[in-house]
Specification:
The complex is a heterodimer. By secondary structure, chain A is of the alpha/beta class. In chain A, 50% of the residues lie in helices and 13% in strands. Chain B folds into four domains: 2-68; 89-243, no CATH class; 268-296 and 329-499, 3-Layer(aba) Sandwich (Rossmann fold); 300-325, no CATH class. Chain B has a six-stranded mixed beta sheet with strand order 3-2-1-4-5-6, with helices on both faces. Classes of the chains: A alpha/beta, B alpha/beta.
Chain lengths: 304, 501
């Protein structure tokens, strides 16, 4: 089957992807950059999965940013339907059109349009409201499509995405099939609150984003927090790693790490000790019980 | 390359990963876009195209290491060499440069010397040395026998036992503590190079280590030890592949996927992995339980949709459309056996109950052995699963006579005390092996429960073939349930959830 032309590859090499992302402040590791590179080459969507706050959405935004492309975003939620994801007929405008037609007949000025031509007129692109998926496909300028939190969709609604993701086309019964002008880069994110269907997974490249390694997190803190010293960034990354090894309701995310480092810089703290850590823990952890557990652990560490 | 890929995919399938033909084709295409000599890039390309779930990553990783670790020149194994060559020259020579002089060649290091090397590698975080130590340790301690069909864990255990990592860790921490206390003034000239391996201490003022610093240091050493274990494992695997060939080794190393691990025989690590997998499942379970109501009822008039559909009839709203009603909150009652015979299952059950309870407001949980007690409150008040499980074991009043399961008595008490609260909205899950120690079954209780509740399901952790053997009286109960399911692993639990439509 004829699929839209893949067009010129966007990236020359994996290295280029990583450097490009770095220029917009997103530090990618090899695997991540490799998958983005392949997504372009294979013309396949990327399914990004992982715990909250590991930079899944940020990846799509950064990619769009460094490609200079427009980001088209579809936020998923339970109850999303095709009228909000794909397209909808502008029924108000259509009603008006009918009214106008009727008015014209009453005055008797014009010959009434035949049913056929009226129908053709009513269901033309003029009355079509594009929603994110259709918009991404019809765009002529470079776009990156982000389908955020796919796992919130019900299983049945997931099927809506399949045609777009595999063939880059949308079928509209009244209009026919709309093919993509270009194949956009597509990112789907999931927090893994439920298993996605096999059909969807099969069409995507899979990327699991976990919490970063110590070195990467330190580098992230260094790039994202102005005025942070090497030593503080190192300490911050280490403490966060220790916290993640505890059994907590919610582990600190990367963005929370960054917020914490910013706070420490603002407070003029150069080196974290247990007291400062405890006093500012609420920035890293959002559950009261987690804070208590963490404070206890950090203070009584020497025990074992 | 394609041949290797085909063999590799076949191995993934044998390990239970669902790899479709389309995905295999994707993988082949993906590899074509990458430089073949970049092993890491190939790995991620294969991972992205073939593995579509984080739970499968470990199986993929093992298979990849086996099928692709042999291909690089640095991985060839020297004939009868105590230490494998690295392509450039034998490792001993290379290691020697970093190793304190050992008169008769590195192959003959004494255990003390190896221990000293290990200590240094861990203290300084020296990757190269760490790798060398791993190879040395495996060569010396694992005592591999050619052709013996055992998995790598046996050798791993032998090697680790000899290294005494616990002791090393204690010494590392003690040393750091002493050093921090002793040092007066900033570390001397060699400080930068020396201390780079111990960044926690970088730039700190001398003095006693604070509790926080000590903690961070300990975590750092833990991470390094984990790395060492991985190196050792890789080394063992590499030697096994050389000895027996990839396919044979893959067979003996194949481990069940997290979804296939039996609750009754799960190791601690596997339980942790399972717990992560439970969360999505409980959500699914709850939506399934609530679904029927949702499809039957209609909500308020959806004006927008009505108008849109009226267009088919020239603007006359012939076909009214309704909004979906908000999802009803399911009311779930969980009654779980926590006696010794199902101890491992019970531990898992409690985790499951906790996951369900944290997700939904209307969950009531009960545990029993021969007496029965409600533990809803304990789950509500506990902050972590571990705490909840511990408190249930301590506080729940589940013993009546002798602490052997008595389903009949437990169910009767359950019905007398709480039966009247069960309404048509409740779904009841009974969890247990129905091994009743030859007490009376009192199966009428289940019949009554079913009459009052919306659904009654029984989940049994025993294989179906054992049902009804010995003192198992599952059949007596099952006849009154909506359905009884064998539930030995996550896959079966998921299948159960899928059946709920």
């Amino acid at each position: 089957m004829a699929v839209a032309d893949r067009g010129e590859p966007r990236f020359g090499s994996v290295e280029q992807v990583r450097e490009g992302l770095a220029t917009v402040g997103y530090l990618a590791d090899d695997g991540l950059a490799g998958v983005v590179y392949l997504a372009d080459r294979l013309a396949k969507p990327v399914l990004v999965e992982g715990p909250a706050g590991t930079g899944k959405t940020e990846l799509a935004k950064s990619t769009a940013c460094f490609l200079g492309a427009r980001l088209v975003r579809l936020q998923c939620y339970e109850g999303l339907d095709e009228a909000k994801a794909l397209y909808e007929w502008n029924y108000k405008k259509q009603l008006l059109r009918i009214q106008v037609e009727r008015g014209a007949q009453d005055i008797g000025g014009t010959r009434p349009l035949g049913w056929e031509s009226l129908e053709e007129d009513l269901f033309s692109e003029e009355f079509l409201l594009t929603r994110p998926l259709l918009e991404a496909i019809r765009a002529t300028d470079p776009v990156v499509l982000l389908v955020d939190e796919v796992d919130r969709l019900e299983i049945e609604t997931e099927a809506l995405l399949l045609e777009v993701l595999s063939d880059y086309q949308v079928s509209i019964p009244e209009l026919g099939t709309i093919r993509a002008n270009q194949i956009p880069l597509v990112f789907l994110t999931s927090n893994n609150t439920r298993d996605l269907s096999e059909a969807l997974k099969r069409r995507c490249l899979y990327l699991h984003l976990d919490y970063p390694s110590l070195e990467r997190e330190r580098a992230i803190v260094l790039t994202k927090v102005p005025g942070v010293t090497d030593q503080l960034a190192d300490q911050v990354a280490r403490i966060v790693r220790s916290l993640r090894s505890l059994e907590l309701k919610k582990h600190p995310s990367i963005s929370e790490t960054i917020d914490w480092a910013r706070t420490l810089v603002l407070l003029g703290i150069e080196s974290v000790d247990s007291e400062t850590a405890r006093a500012t823990l609420h920035i890293l952890l959002k559950h009261r019980s987690d804070i208590e557990v963490a404070a206890k652990e950090l203070a009584a560490a020497a025990g074992h | 390359m394609l041949e290797v890929l085909t063999g590799f995919v076949a191995e993934l399938r044998r390990a239970g990963l669902p790899v479709s033909v389309a995905e295999e084709a994707d993988a082949a295409e993906a590899i074509g876009h990458l430089p073949l000599e970049d092993r890491q890039a190939i790995k991620f390309a294969l991972g992205a195209t073939l593995v579509k779930s984080a739970n499968h990553w470990r199986a993929f990783d093992t298979a990849f290491e086996i099928y692709f670790s042999m291909r690089g020149p640095q991985f060839s194994v020297g004939q009868g060499d105590a230490l494998p060559g690295t392509g450039m020259g034998p490792v001993p020579g290379e290691a020697e440069g970093r190793v304190p002089p050992s008169p008769d060649g590195a192959g003959e290091l004494t255990p003390e010397q190896i221990a000293a090397l290990l200590f240094r590698a861990l203290r300084d975080g020296d990757q190269v040395l760490l790798g060398a130590v791993a190879r040395l340790a495996v060569a010396r301690y694992s005592a591999m026998e050619s052709g013996r069909p055992v998995g790598g864990t046996y050798y791993l255990y032998r090697t680790l036992r000899n290294l005494d990592l616990e002791g090393v860790l204690a010494r590392l921490v003690a040393e750091a503590r002493a050093r921090a206390g002793d040092e007066v003034g900033p570390p001397d000239a060699r400080a930068e190079g020396e201390l780079s391996g111990r960044p926690v201490l970088r730039g700190r003022r001398p003095g006693r280590l604070t509790a926080l610093e000590e903690r961070l240091l300990e975590d750092e050493y833990h991470a390094r030890i984990e790395e060492l274990k991985k190196e050792i494992e890789a080394e063992i695997r590499r030697r096994l592949v050389a000895d027996r060939g990839a396919e044979a080794l893959a067979r003996s190393l194949r481990r069940p996927l997290p979804s296939e691990v039996e609750f009754m025989h799960a190791t601690r690590d596997e339980l942790v992995a399972m717990r992560k997998a439970i969360q999505p499942l409980t959500r699914k379970l709850a939506t399934r339980l609530a679904r029927k109501r949702r499809h039957l009822r209609r909500g308020a008039l959806d004006f927008r949709s009505t108008m849109r559909h009226s267009l088919s009839y020239g603007g006359v709203p012939v076909e009214p459309r309704f909004k979906h009603p908000r999802q009803a909150k399911p009311e779930i009652w969980v009654v779980a056996d926590i006696s010794g015979s199902v101890a491992a299952f019970a531990r898992f059950t409690l985790h499951l109950v906790y996951a369900i309870a944290s997700q939904f407001s209307k969950v009531r949980s009960f545990v029993f052995v021969d007496g029965i007690d409600e533990v809803t409150g304990i789950f509500d008040r506990s902050e972590t699963v571990a705490e909840a499980v511990q408190r249930v074991n301590l506080e729940a009043d589940v013993l009546w006579v002798d602490g052997h399961s008595d389903y009949g008595h437990a169910l009767t008490v359950f019905y007398e005390r709480w039966g009247h609260e069960i309404g048509p909205k409740a779904s009841i899950l009974l969890l247990g092996d129905a091994r009743n120690n030859y007490h009376a079954s009192q199966a009428w209780v289940v019949r009554e429960l079913r009459r009052r509740a919306r659904k009654v399901f029984w989940l049994n952790p025993e294989p179906r073939s054992y049902w009804g053997s010995g003192d198992s009286i599952i059949e007596e109960y099952a006849q009154y349930c909506d359905a009884a399911y064998e539930c030995r692993n996550l896959r079966q639990l998921e299948a159960f959830v899928d059946h709920l439509t």
